[in-house]
Amino acid sequence: QGVAVAERAYQQALAYAQDRKQGRAVGAPAASPIIEHPDVKRMLLEMRAKTAAGRALCLVTAAALDRYHRLEGAEEKRIAHEEASMLTPVAKAFSTDIGIEVASTGVQIHGGMGFVEETGAAQHYRDARILAIYEGTNGIQAIDLVMRKLPLSNGERVKAMIAGYRQSAKEAKTINDPGFVRVGERLEAAVDALERATDFMLENLKSAPNTALAGATPYLRLFALASGGAYLADQALASRAALATGDSDPAHTTRIRDARFFAENLAAGASGLEYAIFD
What we know:
mainly alpha; globular; 0% strand
């Protein structure tokens, strides 16, 4: 639901920004569609990147559940179940949080028209607001992640997942393309922050549980930034490979741009969340 509302809010804001004329963009001879103004472009890119990351988290969670139900080996089923268990609170909380954030940005792009009923942008915002509350408030999701999911297999499952995110960052850094190198660098920094925060949480779960719980919500967001960034990077790498074979589907270029924007503008917030957890 969070991803769906975010996607619809983005589509509507994009259409409005392409049509609404206000002010003159730099170098334009007359009034310009607001999408030509850099700050509006930034807002639209943020809406799209957050939505893409939320969708990726949901899809990877669903894939882990599918593996659990379809694999036959006991060990393979256990790993898949633990991955799905780890990602479920992250997918729920992040997707519904960004549903609110993206819908709110959509109202901003519409300006005053977004605040009244005529455009429907405000309806998306109202619809999104409940999503972080029901089916387990997002604060409860953060508690579940820290108290119940991190200790799975004595912390080995979360460490294995972090290692996978680090591999995604490493692969992005090895691509001979400045854009991918930056994605890898920003993602690597986010994964480093997640690893340190995870160690902090695991150390405090038994000795100082209230310390861990106090940082649970920023920890979940940090987990989402690192994991969502890694999944977008994986998509971007696959799209780059497809483009190299002559596949000209424009969706490939979009995935690459989403991964770059998310890594450089959103995953960069991981360090601040780490400070919040430790403080």
